[in-house]
Predict the 3D structure of the following.
Amino acid sequence: MLNCQVATDPMAFRDSSTPTVAHRVEYAGFAAAHALFSRLSLETGTSLAATGGRFLGMASPLRKRADRNLAHALPDMSDAERAGILKGMFDHLARNAIEYIHLREIGDTPDRISISGEAHLLDAKATGKGAVLVSAHLGNWEAIRLACERLDWTPALIYRAFNNPFVDAESRRLMSAIEAPILHKGKRGTLALLRHVKNGGAVMILTDQRFTGAPELPFFGHPAKTALAAAEIAQKYDAPLIPVRGIRRGTESAFTVTFDAPLAVATGEPGALAAMTEVNRLLEEWIRQNPEQYFWLHNRWGKFR
């Protein structure tokens, strides 16, 4: 395993906001739920959370947003088909949340993580140039880090800090069960990420969120603002750009992690645009195969045209 700290930049863990009374109240509920589910086994906890997640999710305003996105992406689906997918999504997301408490158990149980295409990651590691792993909020992205850990090359992760600093700190603690740099999005976190790749490390970037000011690239047949950062980092350091996903098997806390062959990344902005267009195409293909495991709540397309 790489001998790295939880953060390579001490400022990358700055609180995302000044704590308020509302933050403290919100965190009290978060902590109570965490205390409850920490006492339950992985199987019992995920099953209980999924039952609640399906009921609460389908009854919440979030369903309307997710249904709107799903209908925009897959307009040929019936209302009943979309409802089935969204019910599965809320089930899956609830299981994902509880699995954060049990990351070490999942990683240390061999049959919970199966790996395909590992040669692509190992070949990249052998070059010493680092690597950029691209994925989406699909399946369980922490399963990808656990698979990489098993292959002795755990990627750094960069994410948007939670608005509640107490929740953010606890989330970082849970994520740090997997030993690798964990960085906040922002200038300092980005600089730390670049240093990590420059020094031969791997990074994982979830590329499926809308990025203000980014070029519009096709995603499910519609223009979607897509950050070029993953391809640009690969260009800058001549690092392989490797698509990867971690798909849940059934309803269990077991996953198949698949590494694809590195994508070609030509020089300049045209090369980055072409590479990220291909990334979007792959993400769409994977999501179509497992739509209930995708996070349909993102504002991926902005205002629909």
